[in-house]
Automatic annotation (TrEMBL):
<keyword id="KW-0472">Membrane</keyword>
<keyword id="KW-0732">Signal</keyword>
<dbReference type="GO" id="GO:0009834">
    <property type="term" value="P:plant-type secondary cell wall biogenesis"/>
</dbReference>
<dbReference type="GO" id="GO:0098552">
    <property type="term" value="C:side of membrane"/>
</dbReference>
<keyword id="KW-1003">Cell membrane</keyword>
<dbReference type="InterPro" id="IPR000782">
    <property type="entry name" value="FAS1_domain"/>
</dbReference>
<dbReference type="InterPro" id="IPR036378">
    <property type="entry name" value="FAS1_dom_sf"/>
</dbReference>
<comment type="similarity">
    <text>Belongs to the fasciclin-like AGP family.</text>
</comment>
<keyword id="KW-0325">Glycoprotein</keyword>
<dbReference type="GO" id="GO:0005886">
    <property type="term" value="C:plasma membrane"/>
</dbReference>
<feature type="domain" description="FAS1">
    <location>
        <begin position="33"/>
        <end position="177"/>
    </location>
</feature>
<comment type="function">
    <text>May be a cell surface adhesion protein.</text>
</comment>
<protein>
    <recommendedName>
        <fullName>FAS1 domain-containing protein</fullName>
    </recommendedName>
</protein>
<keyword id="KW-0449">Lipoprotein</keyword>
<dbReference type="InterPro" id="IPR045003">
    <property type="entry name" value="FLA_A"/>
</dbReference>
<dbReference type="Pfam" id="PF02469">
    <property type="entry name" value="Fasciclin"/>
</dbReference>
<keyword id="KW-0336">GPI-anchor</keyword>
Length: 202
């Protein structure tokens, strides 16, 4: 075989191999994730959280990450959590409000499986999209998963939204996460551990 033919064969082999890898990649089968549509869907209790994301221009950041190669994991406080936590938004700067909202997101996909959630527990503390000083501890107690901000503040992971598609996962949580990097004191009392089974909602 001549040198020219060998080079042609090598080139074709590389092209075919690349196409095969792309065709069998999970991202090749993924569809565009519209985060706004997911958070505003009927019977999904995240409209208050979405309004905050839009008001502080954070939704665009999360939307881009939702379709990035590494994906997005979003811990979305439900409407009751937004109204019940009494976050002093008016006392926070625009930068602090953005950081607080980005504190609810991880720049990596962790799906609604016990394996992925247990991996999150093992990796804790994990850095959120708010930056290096904004970390979360994910723990499991008697089958329940908690997002711990400090010793006396935690939110329970209630379940995942069925409308989400790879590479994005949206989990419902029962409290707004209050990062210590912004708030110098603790908020609320952590919930007592309860028996919990992973669920898909909506």
């Amino acid at each position: 075989m001549g040198l020219g033919k060998m080079m042609d064969f090598t080139f074709m082999f590389i092209v075919i191999t690349t196409l095969v890898i792309l065709n069998f990649s999970p991202l090749a089968f993924s569809t565009y994730v519209n985060l706004t549509a997911i958070l505003s869907a009927p019977n999904v209790p995240f409209i208050s959280f979405l309004n905050l994301l839009q008001k502080e221009n954070v939704i665009e950041i999360l939307q881009t990450q939702a379709n990035a190669q590494t994906g997005l994991t979003l811990f979305a406080p439900d409407n009751a959590a937004i109204y019940g936590n009494k976050v002093p938004w008016g006392n926070l700067s625009a930068a602090q409000q953005q950081s607080l909202l980005l504190f609810h997101a991880l720049p990596q996909y962790f799906g609604n499986t016990l394996s992925d959630l247990n991996t999150l527990c093992q990796l804790s503390p994990v850095t959120t999209m708010a930056g290096g000083q904004y970390t979360l501890n994910i723990t499991s107690v008697l089958g329940a998963f908690y997002l711990n901000v400090s010793g006396s503040s935690s939110a329970q992971l209630l379940g995942a939204v069925k409308l989400t598609t790879y590479p994005t996962e949206v989990y419902q949580i029962d409290k707004v996460l209050m990062p210590e990097a912004i708030f110098a004191y603790s908020y609320g009392v952590s919930m007592a551990p309860q028996s919990f089974m992973l669920q898909n909602f909506y």
